[in-house]
Write a structure and sequence with these properties.
With 345 residues, the protein is an alpha/beta fold. It is built from 14 helices and ten strands. The protein is globular and about 50 Å long. Strands 8-1-9-10 form a four-stranded mixed sheet, covered by helices on one side. A three-stranded parallel sheet has the order 2-3-4, covered by helices on one side. The chain has a three-stranded parallel sheet with strand order 5-6-7. Helix 1 runs antiparallel to helix 10. The structure holds ligand V47 and iron/sulfur cluster. The site of ligand V47 has 23 residues, from strand 5, strand 6 and helix 13.
Length: 345
């Protein structure tokens, strides 16, 4: 019998931490044994100029003339891609702010030029929110945008922009962003075009446990209806240099992070993977998450700006051998993957 939302909430709130983690780990082991997946990748946050100002975001700069604003040109993006590929990257994770000026064609050119120079690397690019931005700018539907980007070389969509899908909470933390329903509909469209995607949840701010479970339910329902999610990534809200800081000045506890990972693993029974995003959790907590349901450690990353703008204290990258050693030290088996979860011996 499938876990109901009431059961999930009860377990999340009341189960002893060790029992909850063990239950989630047992389920993870049923799916993947001792395997932990990791990817040699690079994040390319191509601009921080953004027309929105989500209250939790410390990364975006509204004005192009702000001294901290940047907007990398295509040669810079190519150079960053080249550096990563020379280090064996199998995935470029490309996301940025919603720039007011670039036409949609600019992003098509970004992908097609990367694809023509670097045939083998996976391009995991643009959140559902960026896809909606391109759609508005070019008077196309999100599905049409996705079709064109797929032609240009898009392999997968990252899971950002989901925040909390429950609209009442979303209105309070990022009211001007696409609605939860719109976020879901972009992922539905991507899955219908055989573009695999991920899903995230930003937690540890003003949302209640009920909102987290409702968010998971929306994801589980979409995965039933239109499968195509590979991984769920619980994103730990980081409180520095943003507008929510006055209300939520501290990062949530390690116990809350582990409970959230564990309940996600148990409730999202139709998701292949839960990621421990070490950049936000910190390495120590991410290692514990690998025993609480997480089967993926994400990547070597090399450069990351969104979480570090909000106070992440983790390093900005790990070498492939450091990643594998971390996993082995936990008594687990590292498996290298790409954005489509093709694995490499
Ligand atoms: O969409 C913004 C979040 C996301 C803060 O798909 C913040 O494989 C914490 O989506 N504190 C970007 N989080 C990261 C992301 C992601 C990361 C790793 C893997 C994948 C994947 C996706 O970061 C944004 C937003 O939800 N974010 N500000 C903050 N203060
Ligand atoms: Fe812009 Fe994304 Fe930051 Fe929101 S979270 S302000 S959309 S960069």
């Amino acid at each position: 019998m499938r876990m109901t939302t009431d059961e999930a909430l009860d377990l999340f709130l009341n189960a002893p931490l060790q029992d909850l983690c063990k239950k989630a780990n047992d389920f993870k082991e049923k799916l993947h044994g001792k395997k932990v997946f990791w990817v040699n990748n690079r994040q390319i946050n191509y601009t921080n100029v953004c027309v929105l100002h989500c209250r939790f975001c410390a990364f975006s700069k509204i004005k192009k003339d702000n001294l901290e604003a940047y907007d990398w040109d295509l040669p810079t993006i190519h150079q960053k891609a080249k550096e990563a590929i020379e280090k064996g990257a199998r995935e470029l994770h490309i996301v940025g702010g919603l720039h007011p000026d670039h036409p949609f064609e600019y992003y098509v050119e970004m992908l097609s030029s990367l694809r023509s120079k670097f045939q083998a690397v996976n391009l995991k690019a643009f959140t559902a929110v960026e896809i909606c931005h391109f759609a508005k700018k070019s008077s196309r539907t999100p599905k049409e945008i996705l079709e064109i980007l797929k032609q240009a070389g898009l392999d997968a969509l990252p899971g950002g922009g989901a925040e909390i899908l429950v609209q009442s909470v979303r209105d309070k933390i990022c009211g001007k962003k696409e609605t939860g329903e719109e976020w879901l509909s972009v992922h539905r469209a991507a899955h219908s075009l055989s573009i695999p995607t991920n899903a995230t949840m930003l937690f540890g701010h003003i949302e209640k446990p009920e909102d987290r479970i409702a968010h998971l339910e929306m994801l589980r329902n979409l995965q039933d209806e239109a499968p195509g999610f590979f991984a769920f990534i619980p994103l730990v809200y980081l409180p520095q240099k943003n507008d929510l800081n006055r209300i939520v000045p501290e990062r949530t506890s390690e116990e809350d992070i582990l409970r959230t990972v564990a309940i996600s693993r148990l409730f999202l029974d139709n998701f292949p993977h839960i990621k421990a995003y070490w950049i936000q959790m910190g390495i120590e907590t991410a290692m514990k998450a690998l025993h609480a349901g997480a089967s993926d450690l994400d990547g070597t990353i090399l450069e990351e700006k969104i979480s570090h703008a909000a106070g992440a204290s983790s390093p900005i990258g790990l070498t492939p051998s450091a990643m594998q050693e971390l996993i082995i030290k936990e008594g687990l088996s590292p498996i290298e993957r790409d954005a489509k979860y093709e694995t490499y011996p």
